[in-house]
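Input record (one chain):
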Amino acid sequence: MTTPLTDEVVDAYLARIGAARPARPTADALADLQERHVLSVPYENIDFHLRRPQRIGAGALDKIVNRRRGGTCFELNGALAEVLRALGFAVDVLAARMSDDGVLGPVLGHMVLRVGTADASGPWLVDVGYGRGSRRPLALTSRQPQRDPQGTFLLAEAPLGDLDLFRDGTRQYRMETRPRLIDDFEHMWWWYCNAADAPTITQLYCTLPTRAGRVTLYGDRLVLRENGTRTTIVYDGDEELREAYRTWFGLELDDLPRSPGR
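The corresponding structure, as predicted from the sequence alone:
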């Protein structure tokens, strides 16, 4: 059991995403928090390539808030879980398996949140740690298409009581419905940080949705998708790359990660 966050830590987190402290833990408040988070905190794996130690759950708050960085699902969803609990939401951490071309990955390969609110709505699926996830919470009990700025999402029953999440007809992941502890993900986190074939090691990325699309930096190549158009920029040299991280993602980097294979 983690120690409850102090008001100072919660307020600093809210300031990081540009949100006011909600008066009550309602569905509208939850939607506002998730949307502000995904539009301001990038999904990125820079520290994996800099070989810097990282922590998950509440331990990632210093990186997100004080260092003004992003992270991956165990960091972003794990930290958000603690903040939401401090704000009065009911939160369960759930495990999920990523789906890659229809093939399911490891059981604890992804972390998502099930969130209950004080206005008897939901429960809601919240995921701020997935590059192709929804911008707003999804109703977990609905089996109808749910429209979102990031696409049309659908939850469907899967074997053994699990749920599949589809985006625009493609399965994103399969999630368990029983609660997990943050500690349950530690061994998978070690694999992500150390295994030569882990996607966090073989790929380098930093991505954010925008109001009109998405911007993603793959190594030294930036792809901007907005209003149905796609623009690619290849940066030449460290200073151009630092400016790209600063301009598009609000990241100030002293050390730059190198693309795999370079």
